[in-house]
Specification:
Layout (H helix, E strand, L loop, with lengths): L7 H13 L1 H9 L10 E6 L4 E6 L2 E2 L1 H5 L4 H4 L3 E6 L8 E4 H17 L7 E5 L4 H13 L2 E4 L6 H11 L3 E5 L2 E3 L2 E3 L1 H9 L7 E5 L13 E3 H10 L10 E2 L3 E7 L7 E6 H15 L7 E4 L6 H13 L3 E5 L10 H9 L3 E4 L1 H9 L15 E4 L6 H11 L6 E3 L34 E4 L11 E7 L9 E2 L3 H9 L6 E9 L5 E6 L3 E4 L2 E4 H9 L4 E11 L3 E10 L5 H15 L8 E4 L13 H8 L16 H14 L1
Parallel strand pairs: 4-17, 6-7, 6-8, 8-11, 11-12, 16-17, 16-18, 18-19, 19-20, 29-30
Antiparallel strand pairs: 1-2, 3-13, 4-5, 9-10, 14-15, 15-23, 21-22, 22-24, 24-25, 26-27, 28-29
């Protein structure tokens, strides 16, 4: 079987086989990877528990697939190209040979600091090569990594450390982000005041920001590396892992206030990210692939680290932001490294569009072959700009749909092979069996239909549980529809059978491609001493895709402007700047049913400015509330 699909006919054949005989199909895909011991059984599953096991009995280590197996033929091939925040600072290139050496070195550092197989390690680092090294070093020795995005607050870090009972934290003195310096170690210190499980903190030097080092707990990365070097820099054999051993936990916002730790396991995740990377982007050996995501999110895990490295690709990682020092930064990077594939978010594309074309003109983008999009459906205007200005009308665009829980791409065009329509995810990849469901639990057959998007058969990269709370996993993803995985997204299947994702159907917002639970933001706002109650909804935002609109009932006699600033600061401190509301509207009451449920449907329409489309309000406890909120919203818009 060809690992890489080369034509539409091959796609159709692979898809048919993957549905008719999924175990044979995924067994043949699995044969393209290195196993210490082959599996006994490709798949054993039920969606009721849920209990999903791929490649049962197989033994492997994912880092041998990402590093060791490439050494003999491609040891001098660049594995990671790192572009720093400041374009005047020297970039770094790590070949596969060098990356393996650094991973083994740091794996020994972890062992010296008493990290063992099954221990959890929290990683809170900027976008530097040591972040990739940390992930792979954990995987090398069988420790479970939990990466926290560098923009999250101390409280968010503490919640995640405590939930997984992390033993060790890896951080740095600080990080650069555009013109800002982020004091990462200080944030970790604040978080650790409420974390009893942490024994050690390893601190990397990046910004030379003065930090407080706690004796007996905190050690410098560089000092620990020197200790390993004095031991003769021993290699670190890869720990033998079971196919279903946990690889990492990654926290994602839920519709309740507490973030949930999505658990991915070793073999299935490896096979799925490798297979989808090679196929979606149609990666060719020697190409430079640039994913602009942060490794703190699933896109960075799957498509900067594990997917590309498992395929021997050259993965470019970028520390900065697309508008620093100016809005031409991405295109400078493409020009500088002759990038062949770029994978970015619609938010970034819309933001760069807003700066005008002057920043993209006179940049040599002729090396580009494939354009990718991730995080949310790319709107038509942005799709055409991306296609015409960036791709010069010659590059296919893969508008990939998937989620943290999925591990990798589920519905997406395959570059240059399957058709494309702007704003459509198009067709499922082999092995993915979508179903559109109505609210009564019936599958909606045929085309030109809309429904709730479910998947009716497991795929190797799917989540196995939520850390420490399997029932939450069952309730969230498997209890809504019998024998189905519920994605939480709505979907339209057009007359030709192509899929377009229409957005969340639960209380989770998609802000700049990042999922943020409304309950999480409401809980943070409600912590403010002057707030009585709040309700959060999403509304269309020209850059972020979805903005956050907050309706807040506050105590009487507040100063609205200063209270708004306080609320923004509270949300920033408790969750992180990414969750700050774009609009805060103070209201005297919220539209509630007689049972006390807030009617967010009405609040969404008002936030969208569709004042005449709020629908039936007769079931409300006090229908006059709606008119008052509309009048205030109209005044705010003037």
């Amino acid at each position: 079987m060809n690992f890489q699909i080369n034509s539409f006919e091959e796609y159709q054949e692979a898809y048919k086989k993957s549905v008719e005989n999924p175990e044979q199909f995924w067994g043949e895909v699995g044969d393209h990877f290195f196993w210490k011991r082959k599996w006994n059984n490709v798949l054993n599953w039920n969606f009721t528990e849920p209990d999903i096991n791929w490649y049962e009995g197989g033994k492997l280590n994912i880092t041998e697939n990402c590093l060791d197996r490439h050494i003999y033929q491609n040891g001098d091939t660049p594995a990671i190209i790192w572009e720093p925040n400041d374009p005047t600072e020297a970039h770094r290139i790590l070949t596969y040979k060098q990356l393996l050496q650094k991973v083994e070195q740091f794996a020994n550092v972890l062992k010296n600091n008493n990290v063992r197989k099954g221990d959890r390690v929290c990683i809170y680092l900027p976008m530097v090569p040591e972040l990739v090294i940390s992930l792979l070093a954990c995987a090398r020795i069988g420790a479970i990594h939990s990466v926290v995005f560098g923009g999250f607050s101390a409280q968010s870090i503490a919640d995640r450390i405590n939930d997984a009972a992390c033993k060790l934290v890896i951080t740095s003195d600080g990080g650069f982000r555009g013109s800002k310096v982020l004091e990462l170690k200080t944030v970790v210190d604040d978080a650790l005041m409420q974390c009893e499980s942490v024994e050690k903190v390893i601190v990397l030097t990046r910004t030379r920001t003065p930090v407080s080092m706690i004796k007996g707990r905190d050690v410098w990365w560089e000092d620990e590396i020197k200790k390993v070097e004095t031991q003769g820099n021993p290699s670190c054999p890869a720990e033998e892992m079971d196919a279903e051993d946990k690889l990492f936990v990654l926290y994602t916002s839920g519709s309740t206030g507490k973030p949930k730790g999505v658990v991915h396991t070793t073999a299935g995740y490896m096979v799925f990210t490798g297979y989808t990377f090679a196929n979606t982007f149609q990666y060719k050996p020697g190409e430079v692939y640039f994913c602009t995501a942060d490794i703190g999110w699933i896109t960075g895990h799957s498509y900067i680290v594990y997917g590309p490295l498992s395929q021997g690709a050259t993965s470019l990682m970028f520390e900065g932001i697309p508008t620093y020092p100016d809005a031409g930064r991405y295109w400078d990077i493409v020009d500088k490294y002759k990038v062949n594939i770029i994978y970015t978010a619609p938010t970034a594309i819309r933001s760069l569009m807003a700066f005008g074309d002057e920043f993209i003109e006179n940049k040599d983008l002729s090396s580009l072959r494939v354009l990718g999009s991730v995080g949310e459906p790319i709107n038509e205007e942005a799709w055409h700009w991306y296609h015409e200005k960036v791709g010069k009308k010659k590059c296919p665009i893969v508008d990939t749909w998937w989620q943290t829980e999925n591990g990798g791409h589920l519905i997406t065009p395959i570059a240059g092979i399957t058709p494309e329509i702007p704003s459509y995810a198009m067709l499922p990849l082999p092995g993915i069996q979508p179903a559109l469901m109505d609210e009564h639990g019936n599958e909606i057959e045929g085309n030109d239909v809309s429904g709730n998007l479910c998947i009716k058969f497991p795929w190797p990269g799917m989540l196995r549980t939520t850390w420490g709370d399997h029932e939450r996993c069952r309730q969230t993803y498997f209890a809504t529809y019998k024998n189905m995985y519920f994605t939480g997204d709505g979907c339209y299947r057009n007359p030709d059978g192509y899929y377009r994702i229409t957005g969340r159907v639960d209380d989770v917002l998609n802000v700049s491609g990042h999922r943020i639970g409304t309950a999480e933001v409401e809980n943070a706002i409600n912590m403010h001493s002057d707030v009585v109650e709040s309700a959060i909804v999403g509304y269309p935002h020209p850059v972020k895709g979805q903005g956050i609109y907050a309706y807040v009932i506050a105590n009487h006699h507040i100063d609205e402007e200063s209270t708004k600033k306080d609320i923004l600061q509270t949300v920033s401190r408790l969750i992180g700047p990414i969750a700050k509301p774009d609009v805060i509207q103070f209201v005297s009451d919220l539209p509630k049913t007689r049972s006390g449920k807030i009617m967010r449907r009405i609040l969404r329409k008002i936030a969208e400015g569709e004042f005449s489309a709020v629908g039936d309000i007769t079931t409300l406890q006090d229908p006059t509330v709606v008119q008052r909120i509309i009048e205030d919203a109209q005044k705010m818009r003037k």
